[in-house]
Amino acid sequence: MNDPSFLSGFSGKARLFPLPSLVLFPQVMQPLHIFEPRYRQMTEDALAGDRLIALVLPHPGWESNYDDKPALHDVACLGRIMAEQRLDDGRFNILLRGLARIRIRKEIPSKKLYRLARCEILNDLPLADESHWRRTLIDKAPRWFASQSEVVDQFEKLLHSDLALGTLCDILAFAVPLDAEFKQTLLADLNVETRLLALHDFLEGKRCIEEKTQRKFPPEFSVN
Questions:
Q1: In 3D, which of 120, 138, 9 has the Cα closest to residue 54?
Q2: Which of 38, 61, 208, 215 has a CB 3.0–4.6 Å from the CB of 113, allowing a cystine?
Q3: DSSP assignment of 144-193, as one string?
């Protein structure tokens, strides 16, 4: 779910912050340390303007072209700087809140050190049966996070809240340790049901593997 209160002033032009191994989702918070000159400039401009930055994942192979313009995925997450700490040497610590999925349509030529692009806001497709998925997640969360009772408690509170399932799925996808490319597929998928199914299948598979590794070998045999 997008946050209209922060998106009303979005011009369609986004400052791009390519970050390997990190995928931001709407409605989650991410602390960031800004130290490269180009991204210090980006942060300065954002703070002086709409406070918006788009986190975008580079395509695999970005290492060979990181200092220039590595190829980027075309779906990113637009975020707003909610808090900042300006350090004496020009670096920043910021707290970025994800606002919405965006699609990068065209990069804008600029004299800035960082990259700019024309983007469009993307919206989730409606979910046909929310009650089914809420019941499924409430039932399976204790097994997925059996060793993390606090996580189960927090997640169940969210499931019983009025948060949309698309938002809940995004929060879970952000929190679970997934490969960045897999997280990117979840970010790029506007169909909430297929996002939930992909995350469900991953967590079910992870649970099965963990259960198998915990079984004794050889098993204990009955004396009867």
A1: 120
A2: 38
A3: HTTT-HHHHHHHHHHHTSS--HHHHHHHHHHHS---HHHHHHHHH--BHH
One-letter amino acid for residue 2 of the chain: N
Helix or strand (DSSP H, E) at 86:
strand 75-86
Q: Give CA–CA dist 114/36, Å, rounded.
A: 10
Q: Decide if 158 contacts 44 (C-beta within 8 A).
A: no
Per-residue pLDDT of the chain (224 residues; tens, 9 = 90+): 566 667 777 889 999 999 998 999 999 999 999 999 999 999 999 999 999 999 999 998 766 666 668 899 999 999 999 999 999 999 999 999 999 999 999 999 999 999 999 999 999 998 888 888 888 888 888 888 777 777 778 878 888 888 889 999 999 899 888 899 999 999 999 999 999 999 999 988 876 776 666 555 455 544 44
Residue 44 region, left (φ>0) first, then alpha (ψ -120 to 50), else beta? alpha
Please, what is the Cα angle at 92 between 4 and 73, to 5 degrees? 55
Distance from C-alpha of 21 to C-alpha of 178, rounded to nearest angstrom: 10
Report which of 34, 137, 155 is spatially closest to residue 95, judged by C-alpha positions: 34
One-letter amino acid identity for 196?
A: L
Q: Is the peptide bond before 218 cis (omega within 30 degrees of 0)?
A: yes
| C-alpha to C-alpha distance for 82 and 23, rounded to whole angstroms | 18
Q: Give the predicted TM-score (pTM) of the model.
A: 0.86
